[in-house]
């Protein structure tokens, strides 16, 4: 029988190139059509998480008063770029955040709400990227269920309204971890390049992010040794080092010569670890909570252990058991990222103690790993309430109750933030400069005298345009956090240099006689928390 080409025309014939092209094209179109709603849902979820976290940070920061570190950030960000870099080179932190803050303030506004908004945006982006990280490590359903818990993460929100580099560091660290996870899974060069760039950016934002990069280096080393993973990832670290080389000499000088206040840093001890946990859970340091709050902190910390070692209660299918095993691996990775950097801090402080130099760890340095802690707790909880997992009624009730309890505890932490304001956990005090400014009149006849350089930097933002001076017997050294005041015309070495009819002294409650000058008499005194405002007039 003569072949007239009818076989190629039959609907079930797939041998023709044209037919295969049509079928493949149709299949791709169907996959794209099915994926479109999921991408739309994912985008909406990420936007909701980012906007909610940003808005909540701004709400909590609405009554926050600028404190010393924030005042320092604003002060040097207003300097010319060259001077800004010179000042940061003699301080403890690199210049990237200050340059970003300068650009933001110059383009938009130097008003306090605007400066806090920058940090809040970084915090919102960090929360959204954490959702993507959970999706990468676990599954889309676990990521979606975890999202609300990431929005109400207390310690992350605390630094979402602070005019410092910590929320930017959190964003960089989480984004770098996401790129690393994708690079390991997909083995594509672009993810390794992105990871290397983020490592360099992290080191240009906050030196102590090195604890995260060391952790990830160790995890990759173990994976290469035990699971025979290729060692090509070393090229990413070489690239990161190459990108960072131009700033490396300045970084070494900063790290080796940085002055650390021994009153703020007691090193990574068990007490500091307890402080870190209580700050993560309730946004209060360990000495500010009682037995009940301590029990709540231990409850939240125990959830990942309960999840990792909980056996039984599941009648899941083989596919859902595979998914649960993947979620357990995700928890293991998140636990390593939350805990191992603290171990690196402990090792560094142990070496510093042996060398006889001041210890380094401060609880705020753990802020950029806090999202790993919250993600760990969220994954451990939400995996047990997935609809695809066939659990006993008892197990579902326990998991649901645990979720409700964690949400309630997080809300308590948020309430603590709202009540405490911009509390300085290291010094155990709440700054009051904005409140003090509301009770002080600026005029040419009234000199406002900060009792020391610390008080001047903390209050300078609110007294812009006023006759603000600070008392310092000797010239301020060009090093550390006071370096912006080196050669400042606002310094007076003796109160007898004052000539105005009235002097308002910004001081501390512990100062018995803040203005020791017989020409002036005390006419009024007002206490704001641990700060004091004393008004003097010429006799």
Describe the structure.
The protein is α/β, with parallel strands linked by helices and 539 residues long. The protein has 2 domains: 37-420, no CATH class; 433-538, no CATH class. The chain has helices at 6-9, 17-60, 68-77, 81-88, 96-107, 112-137, 140-151, 154-158, 166-186, 189-205, 210-226, 234-244, 248-257, 270-282, 291-309, 318-355, 370-382, 393-420, 433-438, 453-459, and strands at residues 446-450, 468-471, 491-492, 502-508, 520-528, 531-538. A 6-stranded mixed beta sheet has the order 3-2-1-4-6-5.
Biggest sheet, in brief?
6 strands, mixed
Total helix count?
20
Percent helix among the residues? 55-70%
Q: What would you report as the Rg, rounded to the nearest angstrom?
A: 28 Å
Order of helices and strands: HHHHHHHHHHHHHHHHHHHEHEEEEE
Low-confidence stretches: 1-14
Number of separate domains: 2
Structural class: alpha/beta
Strand content: 5-15%
> Main sheet: which strands, in order across?
3-2-1-4-6-5
Shape, principal axes of CA atoms = globular
Span between termini: 126 Å
On the 0 to 100 scale, the average pLDDT is: 88
* Tally of DSSP β-strands: 6
């Amino acid at each position: 029988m003569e072949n007239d080409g009818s076989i190629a025309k039959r609907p079930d014939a797939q041998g023709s190139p044209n037919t295969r092209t049509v079928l493949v094209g149709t299949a791709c179109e169907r996959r794209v059509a099915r994926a479109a709603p999921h991408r739309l849902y994912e985008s909406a979820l990420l936007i909701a998480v980012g906007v909610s976290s940003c808005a909540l940070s701004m709400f909590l920061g609405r009554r926050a008063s600028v404190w010393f570190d924030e005042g320092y950030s604003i002060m040097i960000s207003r300097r010319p770029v060259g001077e800004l870099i010179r000042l940061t080179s003699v301080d403890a932190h690199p210049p990237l955040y200050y340059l970003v803050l300068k650009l933001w303030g110059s383009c938009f506004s130097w008003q306090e709400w605007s400066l806090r908004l920058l940090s809040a945006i970084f915090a919102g982006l960090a929360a959204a990227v954490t959702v993507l990280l959970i999706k990468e490590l676990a599954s889309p359903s676990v990521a979606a269920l975890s999202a609300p818990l990431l929005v109400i993460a207390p310690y992350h929100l605390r630094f979402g309204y602070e005019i410092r580099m910590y929320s930017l560091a959190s964003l960089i660290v989480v984004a770098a971890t996401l790129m690393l996870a994708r690079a390991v899974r997909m083995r594509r060069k672009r993810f390794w390049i992105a990871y290397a760039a983020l490592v360099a950016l992290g080191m240009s934002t906050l030196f102590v992010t090195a604890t995260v990069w060391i952790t990830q280096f160790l995890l990759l080393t173990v994976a290469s040794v035990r699971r025979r993973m290729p060692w090509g990832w070393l090229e990413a670290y070489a690239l990161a080092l190459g990108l960072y080389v131009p700033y490396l000499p300045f970084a070494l000088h900063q790290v080796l010569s940085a002055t650390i206040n021994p009153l703020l840093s007691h090193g990574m001890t068990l007490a500091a670890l307890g402080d870190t946990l209580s700050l993560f859970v309730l946004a209060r340091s360990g000495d500010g909570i009682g037995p009940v709050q301590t029990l709540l902190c231990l409850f939240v910390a125990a959830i990942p252990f309960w999840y990792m070692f909980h056996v039984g209660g599941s009648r899941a299918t083989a596919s859902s058991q595979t998914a649960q095993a993947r979620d357990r691996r995700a928890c293991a990775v998140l636990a390593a990222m939350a805990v191992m950097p603290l171990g690196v801090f402990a090792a560094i402080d142990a070496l510093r103690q042996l060398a006889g130099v001041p210890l380094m760890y401060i609880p705020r340095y753990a802020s950029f790993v806090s999202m790993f802690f919250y993600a760990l707790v969220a994954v451990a909880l939400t995996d047990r309430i997935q609809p695809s997992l066939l659990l006993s009624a008892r197990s579902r009730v326990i998991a649901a109750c645990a979720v409700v309890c964690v949400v309630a505890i997080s809300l308590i932490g948020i309430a603590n933030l709202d009540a405490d304001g911009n509390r300085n956990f290291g010094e155990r005090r709440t700054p009051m400069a904005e409140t003090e400014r509301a009770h002080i009149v600026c005029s040419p006849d009234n000199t406002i005298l900060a009792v020391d350089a610390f008080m001047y930097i903390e209050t300078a933002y609110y007294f812009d345009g006023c006759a603000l001076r600070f008392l310092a017997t000797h010239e301020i050294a060009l090093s550390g956090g006071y370096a912006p005041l080196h050669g400042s015309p606002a310094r007076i070495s003796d109160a007898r240099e004052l000539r105005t009819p009235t002097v308002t002294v910004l001081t501390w409650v512990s100062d018995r006689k803040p203005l020791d000058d017989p020409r002036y008499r005390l006419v009024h005194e007002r206490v704001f928390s641990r700060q004091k405002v004393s008004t003097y007039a010429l006799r």
